[in-house]
Structure formats: C-alpha cells, structure tokens
Amino acid sequence: MTTTLLTLALSLGLFTGITHAADQPLKVGTTAAFAIPLETAVAEAEKQGLKVELVEFTDWIAPNVSLNAGDIDVNYFQHIPFLENAKAASGFDLEPYAPGIINNVGLYSKQYKSFDELPTGATVAIANDPINSGRGLQLLAKAGLITLKPGVGYKATEDDITANPKKIKLIQVEAVQLVRAYDDADLVQGYPAYIRLSKTFDAGSAILFDGLDHPEYVIQFVIKPDHKDDPRLAKFIDIYQHSPVVRASLDKVNGSLYQVGWKN
C-alpha cells in the first residue's frame, strides 16, 4: 500500500512539473531586424492561449549564448552557415528547428548605378565575420566583379579570389554597421532590414540582390536538441509561418525583399 501511494505521488509530481512547464511563456530570442513580425506572432499566439516572451538582443553572439544557457527556448536571427560557424567556435549543442524567411542581401552604391560604372580600384565594403563576408564575396562573384575558386560557397575568403579585373579593394566592416559605409565606399554589401532601421537610403535601391538561389541563408528557428518536442514551440512556429496577420507584418516590414523559406 505504501509503495503504491509513493508511486502515485511521484507520478502526480512528474505530471505537475510537465503542466507547469507548459504554462511557462515560450522565450524567443531575436535581433531588431526580425522583431516586428515576431511581435505580431506573439500577439497572435496570446489570442490562441499561448504565452510567448520576446527577448531582443543587440548583437549576434548573445542569442546563442543565452540559448545554450537555457535562458531562452529558441532564437531566430541566424542562417545555417552562421550557426555552424558559431557551434564550431563555441562547442554549443544547437540545431535548426524550422525555417523562417530569407532576407535578400544587396550591393548598393551612392555614386554609381551599374557595375560597369565602377572605377578601377573601387572600394567595396563587405561584412567582416567569416560567414557574411563569404556571402558578400558570393554576391560580388554573381555581379561579375570577381571570380572565386569553384565550390568554396559561403566559406569563401579573399584568398579564394582568382580574378579581380577591376582591382576592387575590399574593406571589411561589422555586418550591422555596413550601412554607415554607404557614404564612403564605392559599393557596399547591404542588409535591407538594417538599412530600413537606419532610414538613410532606399533599401530597394541595390544594383543586385541575392535570394533563394542561396537557400542556405534562410533564417532558422534554432533550439537545443532537448526542446524539439516542445508543443509550445510547434504551435508558435505554425503561427509565424501560416498566420495571415504575421504574413502581412512580414510584407510591411520587408516589402518584396524577402521570400519564405518553408513550403506552404
């Protein structure tokens, strides 16, 4: 009789713990570039009885540190190449859970309207982190300004440039600060989300954009492996991907400079 009661008590205790966890708000970490549509998704989730807390970070390191520490349940700010690089550097055990959107990245110039107009020796500002600089180099290759070694992909570095006919000079800048290089460099790798936040020039004015031709750059919802069966997470992702209100928010924030990375 005593054993039976003890077993029942333990079972009830375990059940209570699970219920309590489900009642806790889902904590989602992000950065300013993705915050507004996520805020819309949070409001929609609340209408459906799901509590979600949005935690906004000001850099691209803290969201993974916080996720690994268990301070948040999921983050949304990075694509898979960035995640893989972060995991290699930190040893964190994190994984993509579901795709979000891909933001087009462009090449912008204050002075020139085409790549043909760029002078020999033009200064070109690209991101300085290993992954986003690779994306910038891929974009320059797409523009025909440089040639890269075959197969280097997003891991491209300046050492992989095999041809540079205009002898462009690369300047590496922190990705979120590239918008400030617009006035000084001849050509700038630009992120429309940050350009809009800066309100300095037209985010749609790039000479060239990338997009789903590089699906590895789709932004991912990233979790710790032990969170993959969290029903709160599945419900929130479904709201983000399929709510008409959230889609309207994505359209308002990003205009035509994004595509969804999931299959409807």
In words, what does this structure look like?
By secondary structure, the protein is an alpha/beta fold. It has two domains: about 1-105 and about 215-260, D-Maltodextrin-Binding Protein, domain 2 (3-Layer(aba) Sandwich), CATH 3.40.190; about 105-210, Periplasmic binding protein-like II (D-Maltodextrin-Binding Protein, domain 2, 3-Layer(aba) Sandwich). The protein is about 40% helix and about 20% strand. It has a five-stranded mixed β-sheet, with helices on both faces. Helix 2 links the parallel strand 1 (about 25-30) and strand 2. The longest helix is centred in the N-terminal third of the chain and has 22 residues, at about 1-25. The radius of gyration is 22 Å and the shape is globular. The termini are far apart.
Q: Using the 3D structure, state the CATH architecture of the largest domain.
A: 3-Layer(aba) Sandwich
Largest sheet: 5 strands, mixed
Domains (count): 2
Q: Indicate the overall shape.
A: globular
Q: Helices and strands: which structural class? A: alpha/beta
Give the SSE order as H and E letters: HEHEHEHEEEEHEEEEHEEHHE
Count of DSSP H/I helices: 8
CATH superfamily of the largest domain: Periplasmic binding protein-like II
| Beta-strand content estimate | 15-25%
Number of E-state strands: 14
What percent of the residues sit in helical stretches (DSSP H or I)? 25-40%
Secondary structure topology:
Layout: H1 2-23, E1 26-31, H2 32-47, E2 52-57, H3 62-69, E3 74-79, H4 80-90, E4 95-99, E5 101-103, E6 106-108, E7 123-127, H5 130-142, E8 147-148, E9 161-163, E10 169-173, E11 187-190, H6 192-198, E12 208-209, E13 219-223, H7 231-242, H8 244-254, E14 258-260
Helix pairs in contact: 2-7, 2-8
